[in-house]
Amino acid sequence: MSKVHPIQMSHKDVIAGYLFHCPGCGEDHMFTTNIEARPQGVWSFNGDLDKPTFSPSLLVNGSKYKEDLVRCHSFVTDGEIQFLSDCDHGLAGRTVELPEWESGEDE
After folding, report:
1. I need a labelling partner for 12 at 20 to 30 A (CA). Which of 65, 84, 85, 92 fits?
2. What is the mean pLDDT of the chain?
3. Residue 47 DSSP class
4. Which strands make up the sheet holding 5-8, listed edge to edge?
5. Count of alpha carbons within 13 Å of 51, Cβ hemisphere only?
6. Are 72 and 60 in contact (CB under 8 A)?
7. What is the tens place of the pLDDT at every residue in 39-90?
8. What is the pTM assigned to this prediction?
């Protein structure tokens, strides 16, 4: 089982990016890796679905699902999430293993 889930672009048979489940805020976040999907810039990806590394950090401000989520800021490196101290959840400042992706999380 992998830690990230590829998301295809709707109009093409190419991958737009990768979702992962964030244990800090309980939501799925996406690193966009295809410049066609995000012309203003993308994240680099090492290609490893089990021990992924994305660069640079990912900053999520707000949520369309949770009114109380304001900020989630992290690095994903070698299959671990390093939550930065400016996160608004209980894992701020900690590093934890990226959880396994479970099918159906993106549906």
Report:
1. 65
2. 90
3. S
4. 5-8, 15-21, 28-32
5. 1
6. yes
7. 899 999 999 999 999 999 999 987 666 666 679 999 999 999 999 999 988 9
8. 0.87
Closest CA to 4 of 83, 91, 86, 97: 97
- Give the Cα separation of 31 and 75 in Å (integer): 11
CA-CA distance, 58 to 22, in Å (whole number)? 11
Dist CA 60 CA 38 (whole Å) = 15
Counting Cα atoms < 13 Å in the Cβ hemisphere of 7 gives 20
CA distance linking residue 106 with residue 40, whole number of Å: 24
Q: What are the CB-based long-range contacts (under 8 Å, 24+) for 30-39? A: 31/4, 31/58, 31/76, 34/9, 36/9, 36/12, 37/9
Q: Amino acid identity of 68?
A: D
Instruction: Collect all residues with Cβ–Cβ distance below 8 Å to 65 and sequence separation of at least 6.
Output: 27
Backbone angles phi, psi at 56, to 5 degrees: -80, -160
C-alpha distances (whole Å) from 65 to each of 1, 27, 68, 96 are: 26, 9, 9, 23
